[in-house]
Amino acid sequence: METLQVALGDRSYPIYIGASLLDNPDLFKPYVKSQQVLIVTNTTVAPLYLEAVKRALVGFDVFEVILPDGEQFKSLEVMDQIYAGLLQARCDRQVTLVALGGGVVGDMCGFAAATYQRGVQFIQVPTTLLSQVDSSVGGKTGVNHPLGKNMIGAFHQPQCVVVATDSLNTLDDKQLSSGIAEVIKYGLIRDLTFFEWLEQNMDALLARDVAALTYAIKRSCENKAEVVAADELESGQRALLNLGHTFGHAIETASGYGNWLHGEAVAVGMCMAAELSTRMGWMTTAEQDRVVAIMEKAKLPIKPPEEMTPEQFESLMARDKKVQAGQLRLVLQKGIGHSVVTGDFDVEAFRATLGY
Predict the structure, then answer these.
(1) Could you say which of 24, 149, 185, 234 is catalytic?
(2) Are 211 and 343 members of one domain?
(3) What is the pLDDT of residues 274-307, one digit of tens each?
(4) Residue 175, domain member (yes or no)
């Protein structure tokens, strides 16, 4: 088992990475404050892993809420099921929530923890590659709104993150590729050596080679932990973690939540960011070609849906969380392994990238 630390002073917490961790009480009990535990999971994950986590929590009063599975259910309406479960079980402010599932479950459970009785603690148990390398680490929680993705939420750090690599055995190929998109992101924004490793080892990742997956998860979490420790509330460099996301969130919103997987939309967004960076002379054509090639090798899309118009992109991107004083800010590349957040981009190059 590998152990990493997210260094946030008195709110620091460990990330445990390894196989067969879900039923290990030593990874859960130190972080449970009282007798009450509410596990939040979904209809896909519950039959696979709920009993294992319950075994780790023997001796506690364990309740459960099982949500429908899918990005389209990441809403305030469905959130009410978690609040109702907490209230029906008469959970107090000492309760610990456990998020067992992918990014949707983690974000919703974390938001419930941030807001129930003005804040209770929670544990992240991510079961998809995307949630293991990204959404479970860093304390971003929230839900979608029909007008914009992740626009309602809070920063709320977990007590610990338990990454069971063997849970990826039950992940379908599309979801695996979706997670790899976020892995590639770390190489693009700040880790050229890791990007080069991914170019050489993509086949091993797609074949679910245990050593390759474990290394990719560990290196991704190390990168994210360093960025979060330096800028927890995204006042500066943490925004770099949104490479491809401003374009990608627009795709998810326009196409209807759940029709495109998050990682698929972000992969296209990273290709579009690379194109804009190249149009501005910040990347070489050869570097842009490498970005597109690695997405294709990971079996990810590289172009937005044909029916999506440039006007839709512009309208939806104008509501992005990185907009400041009406100015859209984008994460762009100055070569592979080096990214910047800027509002100072060429408007004509941007419009050309959107397809005007």
Answers:
(1) 234
(2) yes
(3) 999 999 999 999 999 999 999 999 999 999 999 9
(4) no
Q: Is 338 a catalytic residue?
A: no
Of the candidates 77, 90, 118, 306, the residue annotated as catalytic is 118
Q: Is residue 159 part of a domain?
A: yes
Domain that holds residue 204: 186-354
**pLDDT tens-digit readout, 33-82:** 999 999 999 999 999 999 999 999 999 999 999 999 999 999 999 999 99
208 and 164 co-located in one domain: no
Q: How far does Cα 295 stand from its chain's mean position?
A: 17
Q: Which residues pair with 42 in a beta bridge?
A: 67
- The active-site residue out of 54, 238, 290, 329 is 238
Residues 6+ apart with CB under 8 A from 145: 75, 76, 151, 152
- 229 and 130 share a domain? no
140 is catalytic: yes
Is pTM beyond 0.90? Reply is yes
The answer to whether 71 is a known catalytic residue is no
Catalytic residue among 54, 140, 190, 329: 140
In terms of domains, do 199 and 341 share one? yes
Tokens of 153: 């939420």
Here the CATH number for the domain that contains residue 239 is: 1.20.1090.10
Pairing of strands 339-342, 330-333: antiparallel
What total number of domains does the chain contain?
2
Q: Is 242 a catalytic residue?
A: yes
Among 42, 150, 223, 242, the one annotated catalytic:
242
123 φ, ψ (degrees, to nearest 5): -120, 135
